Amino acid sequence: MPIKIFTTGGTIDKTYFDQKSSYHVGEPQASGVLERANVVVGYEVVSLMKKDSLDLDDSDREVIRNAIVSAPEDRIIVTHGTDTMIITAEYLQQTPNKTIVLTGSMYPAQYRDSDAVFNLGGAMIGVQVLDPGVYIAMNGRIFDPLAAVKNVPLNRFEERSP
Fold first, then answer.
1. HEC per residue, 72-111
2. What is the pLDDT of residues 49-79, one digit of tens each?
3. Which residues of 26-45 are buried (b: 16+ CB within 10 A; e: fewer)?
4. Residue 11 designated active-site
5. CATH number for the domain including 72?
6. Catalytic residue among 7, 8, 11, 84
7. Spatial distance between the Cα atoms of 134 and 79, rounded to a whole number of angstroms
8. Contact 130/138 with Cβ under 8 angstroms?
9. Could you list the residue range(s) of the whole structural domain that residue 51 is in?
10. Whole-model pTM above 0.90?
């Protein structure tokens, strides 16, 4: 069961840029994370863009959707920034016959204490066992994006209150 992983940027791929004392989106980190974790499931990582999710718009979401639809694989992971992950997941709702799991991290994957490894691992498991549909894998849970919210003060995803 090969898995296609599309990277879009976000905090998971951010690196610290000393000269500006700021962060910028760097090279995709998914391959390195999965190699260090000794993942033996077949996967391919393809970079679609290197953007902070606050800079994504619907034309970027259409690029993501088209890549998913065009992929021969029916198991898809999208690494994405957490600020607009839910918006993109909602945008992808009408993508038929694919299991799509979006994931990311609150801290760059290059940080020793990053949540990136755990979240990407959760997405890898989720994409293999979930039915076709669109999901978010964050904070040790699989969320329905239509019922999820990012709790910014607590730096985590939660179920949306009714």
1. CCCEEEEECCCCCHHHHHHHHHHCCCCEEEEECCCCCCCC
2. 888 888 899 999 999 999 999 999 999 999 9
3. bebbbbebbeeeeeeeebeb
4. yes
5. 3.40.50.1170
6. 11
7. 13
8. no
9. 3-159
10. no
